[in-house]
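Example 3.2
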Amino acid sequence: MEKKLNYQIRELKPDEYRLLEDFIYEAIFQPDDKKMLPRSIISKPEIMVYIDRFGVLPDDYCLCAEVEGKVIGAVWVRNISGYGSIDNETPEFSISLFKEYRGQGIGSELMDSMIEYLRRSGYSQASLAVQKKNYAARMYRKLGFEIVGETDQEYIMKIMLK
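Structure, written as tokens:
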């Protein structure tokens, strides 16, 4: 019988925000483990906008999953002009887990926790962008996100919170 992973979900502390560099790299959909993008890709402005000076903007909020004192995943929102931005009022999701922790329901629980936080905080909707080939697109649909736009490679998705 497979042992269920013992983890907790909590708010990411300001002294841990540096971990978002690892998680934004993990969030980049890379379907071929043999052709990984260099980690330096996170320094591109269109990617850095998701983590640069996190905690400074009024809508910055991050939850993490922790196992035995190690942060193994994070979900965060910012109101930025990113890949999944739909307007100036809607925070955009980012989420990632280290590979060895995927497929165990942790990502769904992180997303559920952040959706509930946004509801309680009075947001009417949230958005995200996901590669069409990314298995996570199915998870987002199950959580209530709907496709509201697309590019050749990505879906732009939105969830109504009210």
